[in-house]
Amino acid sequence: MLSVVIPVYNEEEVIEVFYKELSKHLPKRDTEMIFVDDGSIDNTPSLLKKLAEENSNIRIFSFRKHRGKSEALTLGFKKASGDMILTIDADLQDRPDQIGKLIEKSKEGWDLISGWRKNRKDSFFKKISSKVFNLISSIFWGLKVNDLNSGLKLYTKDAAKSLNLYGGMHRFIPLLLFQEGFSVTEVPVIHDKRRLGKSKYNISKVFTEMPDLFTMLFLMKYAKRPLHFFGVFGGILFILGFIILAYLSYLRFLGERIGDRPLLLFGVLLVLTGLQVFFIGFIADLILHLSKKDDIDSKLK
């Protein structure tokens, strides 16, 4: 069975057109559509109810207020009954006629097949920010994909239901699954310009995406060894400060005045900050070690 999870937010202009187009390209049998209304304040909920009255394979779940795409997807994954779970946005930029490419690729046994918007029809800013995140994922995680945040994805049941998304984590689903040992690939798909409705993405999103990315980096790479993160960062600051102070000490030895130089204050600040950051990591490592010890002791009792 195939479950299609569609997160929806204020899409009254496009939802009926999207449904008709999607219906043409889904298997006729053993398919369910799960619309997750993310607190829409327009006529979207009423239009969804109308569609559900016409098709018994449509299921609708709604949030009382806008909670974000990550939580909408998580709810959809929990409610899905299929062995394979497809996600697609309702804006018609990801074309339903490309679904067959993902289904065909899934026969090779991949846990996640992501659509690669090879000729992406979005703003220059969105394309550049996407390239930056894709590059970072390749450097830090070793996952070489061209498009992390495509809305068109096909999952195995186990892969989809392992996800517990929040905040902006939906942008990094391939990374999350890859880190957990699931196999990840992508196939090129056709991407269209948005013709109906309004985009929910604006330039301010990048200021939320970057913190999410660094949160993921810390949680996935250093959550079990915080000293490796804080120690390296603190060590770099300390060494820079030490070099500055050593240079100033050399100048003082030559007879020059250094007490009124801003560089002296900067060097001291770097040394103190480096030590602080290092000991934050040390304390975090100690707390983690003690909590694990307590867990082991409680299991032995």
Automatic annotation (TrEMBL):
Alphabetical list of Gene3D superfamilies matching this protein: Spore Coat Polysaccharide Biosynthesis Protein SpsA, Chain A
Cytoplasm found in the keyword field: no
GO cellular component labels: plasma membrane
GO molecular function, one term: undecaprenyl-phosphate 4-deoxy-4-formamido-L-arabinose transferase activity
Residue stretches making up the Glycosyltransferase 2-like domain: 3-160
Pfam families listed in its UniProt record: Glycos_transf_2
Keyword Heme in record: no
SUPFAM superfamilies recorded: Nucleotide-diphospho-sugar transferases
Keywords from the named record: Cell membrane, Glycosyltransferase, Lipopolysaccharide biosynthesis, Membrane, Transferase, Transmembrane, Transmembrane helix
Biological process per Gene Ontology, one example term: lipopolysaccharide biosynthetic process
Transmembrane segments: 229-251, 263-284
UniProt-listed InterPro entries: Glyco_trans_2-like, Glycosyltransferase_2, Nucleotide-diphossugar_trans
Protein name: Glycosyl transferase
Organism, as annotated: Candidatus Roizmanbacteria bacterium RIFCSPHIGHO2_12_FULL_33_9
